Each structure stands twice: as C-alpha cells, then as structure tokens.
Amino acid sequence: MKFDPKQITIKEVGPRDGLQNESVFVPTADKIAWINQMSHTGLSYIEVTSFVHPKWIPALADAVEVAAGIERVPGVTYAALVPNAKGLERALTANIDEVSVFMSASETHNLKNINKTREETYPILAETTKAALAAGKSVRGYVSTVFGCPYEGAVAVDEVIRVTETLLEMGVQEISLGDTIGIAQPRQVQEVLEVLLRRFPADKLAMHFHDTRGMAMANVLVSLEMGMTTFDSSLGGLGGCPYAPGASGNIATDDLLYMLHGLGMQTGIDTDKLLEAARFIQGKMGRSLMSHSMQACQ
C-alpha cells in the first residue's frame, strides 16, 4: 500500500440515505434515539434527514421533528439534504448545521431525481446555497452518477468536472462524488480521480460508494492511495436511491471502520459503541442488516 496512516473523516449518512428507500417507516422517537446513540460513538458528522417534500420520500416525512428532537453533541456536525429554498426554510427552523444540495452528473438521472434539467437545477441550488451561507450554515454538494448512470450508462468525466466547478463557484464547500448505482471499479476510480485531482484539491472532495457489485471497499482503498481522506458511509449498509433502479446500500460504516483501523488509520470512532447503534436500528428495521460486520455478529 502506498498511503501512510492518517486521519480519515467518515460522514455517516444512514439516517438519511440509509432510511430514505426503506419500506419500513422507523418511528420518529426511534430515529432520534438512533442518532443520539451515534452521536456518542466518536462520529464527527451525521446526516440526520432530508427536507425533500414528504410525498417524494415518505420515510423521512418527520424531518423537522427528528432534526429538532436530537441531542446535539459538541464536535458533531448535524446535516440534512435540502432540495430548494422552501426546504431550506424547514431546515433552518430545525437548526441544521450543514445543508446538503444535490444534483446528477448525468442529464437523465437529474430529470428522474429532481424533475429538472441540469441547467434548470443550477439556479435553484445557487439560491439555496446563497441563503444557507447567509444563515451561517456550511454547504455540501452531492453529485450523483459520477461513475455511471442507470439510464445513460457511462458518464464522461468532463460532465463531472462541469457540475463540480459550477457547485464550487456557488460557494459549496465540499463535493461528494457519488457512485449511485455501485457500478464503479478500482481502475475507473483511479482514472477519474487522476483527472479530478488535477483540477480540485483533495480536501474539496469526498467519496460516496454503494456496494451493489461488492466493489465499494476496493474503491475506498484506491481512493486512499490517491490521497482521499473523506468517505460517506451508512451504518449496517442501509441505503439506496429511489431513482436508481438496482442500487443497493451504501458502503457500511462498520465494515469501513474495520478496514481503516486495520490499516492503522485514525477515525476517532469507537467500534463497540458503533456496533451497539447498529444493533439498535437492526431491531427497529425488523430484519438483519447487510454489512459483513453485522452478519458476523448474528
């Protein structure tokens, strides 16, 4: 391995990306209890919900109640997905720390996901970002289908560059590069990052892998070798995308932690406490979580 032990940031997206596509509605009180547990694991970042209209993501219809009801632990950033200015109003009411805006690198997925072209999406995200920054919030940007689109197939890296540059110019402070359908493989990740890291600093980018084809952990290893230090993950491997057919869960936080600690990387996260939180939400889901760590604990 060509990388040295270093501090790695894990951004936990389970309460949002993990639950948004689940058929089981987790009661509000259980969501709050789960997030509170994770707040005491050493995680420094938790994406707690989404302020997309409840009719589109009914699993997160209680966004305001969840965000307003959680315990705020010093040193933890509590973020939420925000689609537009109206969603931002609700997020600000709930005192979210960071706003996550989102769009796709591919036109068709953007139309399916947001019901707008990419050019129609930019002004909405610019307005949302400007208002969030004015309110003293940090802003993160998700770019979906970076490594492939369920409708268009391959996505040119130039399209990723165009979207990333536009979002950064708006004032977005970090871009999460999404392998939305879990189609990426290590050589592709290396080739894409070789191009992107010539244009953007590594600390402006994060990696967001899904594990549809079992490649997520290998893709993290390549990303580490390329100098990446921030990774999104979902406890227990929960997650998917309602507008990406076949997308399975995000890379599991518990599995990712096992590998990173084995490599001598520092995360600040307590594995035992994290697994306690995983067992808690597994009980509420009424089924086994798909992470290897949780399967090994059965």
Helix-strand layout with pairing:
Elements: E1 9-12, H1 14-18, H2 28-39, E2 45-50, H3 63-69, E3 77-81, H4 85-93, E4 98-104, H5 107-114, H6 118-134, E5 138-144, H7 157-170, E6 174-179, H8 186-199, E7 205-209, H9 216-225, E8 230-233, H10 253-262, H11 271-285, H12 292-296
Parallel strand pairs: 1-8, 2-3, 3-4, 4-5, 5-6, 6-7, 7-8
What does this structure look like?
There is one protein chain. With 298 residues, this protein is an alpha/beta fold. The protein has a single domain (9-296), classed as Aldolase class I (TIM Barrel, Alpha-Beta Barrel). Helices cover 42% and strands 15% of the residues. The protein has helices spanning 14-18, 28-39, 63-69, 85-93, 107-114, 118-134, 157-170, 186-199, 216-225, 253-262, 271-285, 292-296; strands at residues 9-12, 45-50, 77-81, 98-104, 138-144, 174-179, 205-209, 230-233. The longest helix has 17 residues, at 118-134. The protein is globular. The mean pLDDT is 93. This is Hydroxymethylglutaryl-CoA lyase.
**Helix and strand sequence:** EHHEHEHEHHEHEHEHEHHH
Number of domains: 1
Percentage of residues assigned to helices = 40-55%
Radius of gyration: 17 Å
CATH architecture level-2 label: Alpha-Beta Barrel
Determine the strand fraction and express it as a percent band.
5-15%
CATH topology: TIM Barrel
In short:
The chain is α/β, with parallel strands linked by helices and 298 residues long. The protein has 12 helices and 8 strands.
